[in-house]
Amino acid sequence: MSNKYSFRLKSQDPARNLPEKVVIGQQDTETVAHVLLKMFAFILFHRERIQIEQNLHMDTIPFVPDIVQLDYQMRPKLWVECGDCSVTKLNRLAVKVPEAEIWVVKRSEEEVQHLMKAMRKAELRKDRYRLVALDSEMFDEVCGTVAARNDVFWVQGEFEPPGMQFDFNGLWFDSAFSVFDF
Q1: I need a labelling partner for 163 at 20 to 30 A (CA). Which of 13, 25, 104, 106 fits?
Q2: pLDDT tens digit string along 14-38?
Q3: 102, 89 in Cβ contact below 8 A?
Q4: How far is CA 31 from the centre of its chain?
């Protein structure tokens, strides 16, 4: 692990009882953008028993999810991939975690469209995946302000209509995002 990023979280959103602090490690092959995608996914999908990069220690599932929620039988109920994700991996996830919602979070609509084109070409199962495209300008601005220790004040984040409001290290953001079904 090359770096760790700390995010002190406060939430005004009653639907998100966020922990006071989240630490996300940056693996050797990851960018700061990938770390931020995990932070956004953690907050947007926040629910009971949600975890970041939890090794499932299951022989049948050879992957470590970026974000996961396990049910009471310790099976994935929610699986979120952030940033680069191969079509092969997504195809295997559809089989390996049949009961889980599978989401992919990308930094822009362009990246989502590129992935969906590859998914169509590989003939992945329909109605199995959902994809989130963040606003690229907002995301790039947040990337430019990230530090080892960060403060996030979350006001709201909704999927209907898709949008979020938050303060990141003293800068206010009010941004829409897009959701795609595949």
Answers
A1: 25
A2: 878 999 999 999 988 899 999 999 9
A3: no
A4: 14
